[in-house]
Amino acid sequence: MDEYLSLNRANWDERAPAHAASPGYEVERFVADPAFISKVVRFDLPRLGDLTGLRGVHLQCHIGTDTSSLARLGARMSGLDFSGASLAEARKLAERTNTPIDYHQASVYDAVEVLGGESYDLVFTGIGALGWLPDIRRWAQVVSGLLKPGGRLFIREGHPMLFTLDETVDPAVIRYSYFEHEEPLVWNVPGTYVETDAELSASTTHEWNHGMAEIITALMDAGLRLTQFVEHNSVPWNAIPGQMSQDDNDDLKEWRLSTDPNRLAASYTIQAVRG
Question: Quick check: pTM over 0.90?
Answer without folding.
Answer: yes
